[in-house]
Amino acid sequence: MHMFGVAGTGMSAAKLLREGGNKPRVHRDAWDKMMMERDMRLTKEYRKQSDEPIAPEDFKTSSVWRASRIWDD
């Protein structure tokens, strides 16, 4: 009986670690996915955002065409 409690706690801990300590995101649309990809390119993490005024060198090669293509569908 105690194994159910241990397993549930372990699953909750794994989910929190995967999401960076935040609640899981639900009902993600194309905009949310695009912003998560942008955050990943800026900070190397899906759930972290940056307030740096200058983008890193890797971000400068990112294409605007990918963002505009999502809205053309």
Oligomer: single chain
The largest pleated sheet is described as: none
Q: Care to count the β-strands?
A: 0
Low-confidence stretches: none
How many H/I helical runs?
Answer: 4
* Average pLDDT, all residues: 76
Order of helices and strands: HHHH
Could you describe the 3D structure shown?
The protein is mainly α. It has a domain at 29-62. The protein contains four helices and no strands. It has helices at 2-18, 30-43, 57-60, 64-72. The mean pLDDT is 76. Pfam families: MWFE. It is found in: Mitochondrion inner membrane. It is a single-pass membrane protein. Keywords: Electron transport, Membrane, Mitochondrion, Mitochondrion inner membrane, Respiratory chain, Transmembrane, Transmembrane helix, Transport. This is NADH dehydrogenase [ubiquinone] 1 alpha subcomplex subunit 1.
In short:
The chain is mainly α and 73 residues long. The protein has helices at 2-18, 30-43, 57-60, 64-72.
